[in-house]
Amino acid sequence: MSSNEQWTSDVGDAVRIAIDGPAAVGKTSIGRALAKAFACRFVETGKMYRAVALAFDRGISLEEIRIEVTNSGHFLLNGEDVTDLLHTSQYDQKSSEVAAQPEVRARLVELQRAIAAEGDVVMEGRDIGTIVLPDADIKLFLHASPEIRAKRRVKQRQADSYEDTLHELMQRDARDQNRTIAPLKAARDATIIDTDHKTLAEVISAALNLVREQLGRHCHGS
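User: That's the sequence. What structure does it adopt?
Assistant: Structure tokens below.
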């Protein structure tokens, strides 16, 4: 698709694309690429849980927490832009812990659905296709081994130890997959993309082609 091409729905319905998968599998990179290509809003739901963890660290109760996601992808916690505070190893683990709390999930799922109802959206997380948007137009589930994901994360963050990173990811996977509330798993109708032996460009290309093919029946380029 050219940069000037716009995609619109023939029936006037919002397009909703769900991307799920474990930590460090590339959901954010793929999601941003799809959102840009199809002129959708992009929402990283994991950062919403990180914002809750940050709020709890600050002594803010769940009832007092207000989280806003701007159109540019910034996250506001009670009016403060906390985007740059959320992507740390500290909140890698804490976000998974708060995500296991039913009351936190209920509140954020409600907010995520409200955001999706506002217009075309690409939303990534761990339960988007199964819980948040079970009727999404497109459902992708990204897969990669813990070893590959650990190598990618170490390269991305540079300072992290491979052994420590691998251990943390495996702990995170176990917690996400085994929790009783919205465990990490692929939706039955999701397309699984194995990224182990693919470059980021190859995965983006595959995802773009898939979305074009599946949305082609009711979307068109102007």
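Residues 1-12, 217-222 have pLDDT under 50 and may be disordered.
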